[in-house]
Fold this sequence. Notes:
By secondary structure, the chain is an alpha/beta fold.
Amino acid sequence: xxxxxxxxxxxxxxxREDLSVDVEALANIVNHVIEGGVExxxxxxxxxxxxxxxxxxxxxxxxxxxxxxxxRVPMVVGVGGNNTTAIVxxxxxxxxxxxxxxxxxxxxYNKPTQEGIYQHFKAIAQVSPLPIILYNVPGRTGSNVLxxxxxxxxxxxxxxxGVKEAAGDIVQAMRLIKDKPKDxxxxxxxxxxxxxxxxxxxxxxxxxxxxxxxxxFSSMVRYALRGNxxxxxxxxxxxxxxxxxxxxxxxxxxxxxxFESLGLCSGNVRLPLVQASNGLKEKIxxxxxxxxxxxxx
Length: 297
């Protein structure tokens, strides 16, 4: 699964002023991140505001991203939720031929036991036409998928190829890395601890900030994968402030403010989310302007 080593980016869904999907901006963002050197794209994840997209809009987003990508990099699509039966049915009835893997979040709101989580992903693994990357994000789901459950799934189902680990716990990530099967991918789901996770043996990241500043962030990850600590640290330290900024008022309001400052899309988000505050936008815009000056200078 070397195609998922390095930097994947969890793409936003840009909106026009009337909050319809801005297909032109989405295509431009796809080009921006691919030209910036990312290794793969993640479509319809949390950052895409998939919870507020209709089924028709989701089809539009998938089509626009695939068309803009033109086969240049692998693509992962989010297929997850807290109704196991509905996800199984979606996997059995949806054309996923344009994609290379699915990203499936642990069930949210229901707060299942570890056995319930195992059985949920077992049902998905038995029908999925594509390899599966698990997604553990307890800050959003209300339950943590423990390393023993992830390792059990990895050993029992060959098509479960990795996990996007976003518990924000470096010790938990290191336990996963220590005990995982040889080819199983432990992918950071937290931009700020991507570097230590990769240096400990992780496979890279599915990033938010990586789509705003793809060249710098993806270079940092590649340096880390090669064990080049000095260069990786240098880039990581340059990006720490902007990583803090984009999550200060929630995701994806922060990264959309980055794109607004770069002229790639508006900062519009759908309720119950709201745009970044003017104060945060000013901080983000100042950072983006400095980065632009460095590139142009």
